[in-house]
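Exam prep: given the inputs below (a chain plus 9W4), describe the expected output before reading on.
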Amino acid sequence: MSPKLAEGTNYKVADLDLAPSGRMKIDWAESRMPVLMKLREEHAKLQSLKGMKIAGCLHVTKETAVLVETLAAAGAEISWSGCNPLSTQDDVAAALAAADVSIFAWHGMDTDAFYWCIDRTLDFGPSLTLDDGADLIFSVHNRHPERIAGIIGGTEETTTGIHRLRAMANDGALKYPVIAVNDAETKWDFDNVYGTGQSSIDGIIRATSVLLAGKNFVVAGYGHCGKGCAMRAAGLGSNVIATEVKATAALKATLEGHEVLPMDAAARVGDVFITATGMKDVIVKRHFESMRDGAIVCNTGHYDCEINIEDLEALAVSKREIRPSCDEYTMADGRRIYLLAQGRLVNLAAAEGHPSEVMDMSFANQFLSMVRLAREGKDLTVDVHDIPESQDQEIAGIKLATMGLSMDVLTEEQIHYADDYAAGT
Ligand code: 9W4
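Solution:
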């Protein structure tokens, strides 16, 4: 039976009584998101989004609420749904509904409800769409093509979504311009290195409360996320071991002060393992067989197949949830292996995802892309567009300024020097 939900003409959420708790979370996030708050102040005066109707499909979190209220302050009319039933924070959804934002989202909804919610956000005839995963754009194109004529453009937050939209554009199937928010440096680089780095360690500590100092901390995959985890674990006193399949990445890991080993060797000495590769079967049966008693294993890669859990289940003689997000598997020889968050993304399932300060920049990119579409969307070709370098610099510049930091500025002479091919060396 579906739980009892709170429903009005422009909202459907779990429970409106949760609104005060959600508002407290939003207030906290606002205090950590100075870039969006600065843009809010500026664009509230300019009313840059006046007359725009924005349908959004994005994780209903405290940080998203700050984005939503910034879009509204700039003059937009909003209708929102969550892009993943498990990421919706019911108290945040209630706070938005209580503030008269049109929102259709509750935690744990089924697939039918998910699409029903998206459809409700299309009822008011949006002029812009804002996506994380492209479900809203796909819904418009596949199920509500009659809405396309009224839409100026949209944005997409994720790599996977952008990949699919580029394929659509290549086939001529995309019907309005889309801005690829993920490709902004102030989005992907900061999310992956600093966001995933800190929140993954946060998830490990919340799920286990172990001391990381003195531990062998194995990072599988030394891409941006792996590098972020390695950097933070090293900062807490761990001896970091990186495993890689790409020579340049392994070389970077060693020059950045970490040990490099194949997983077969790392498995024998690791105390904590985190996978961040994007590849399946990174930790499998033979690794579990050689792990030390007490080894902790988790994943921060996008797909939850990096750790072969079937292998772990098959080797174990017993299993119990010893703490929230921490399952203890006991092997036939008595060794215990601890799997966190059932192999799902440990930073989201056992912690709170990227800190608000990091989301500040990702969502500033969403906000400025909405403003760009409102201003010049009609002149954009129907394609997937990159974020201009100037937007990255604007966002990073505001962030620095809000941190009280300033930079040097090139003189006219220096700018000329850089471009002067006649000058020799
Ligand atoms: N959250 C999520 C997804 C699945 C999931 C324990 C197993 C992504 C980006 C942002 O996907 C997101 N499964 C869970 S909890 C959970 C959470 N479990 C529970 O049992 C299943 C997600 C973006 N973001 C931040 O990172 C911070 N603020 C944001 O808006 C949010 C959520």
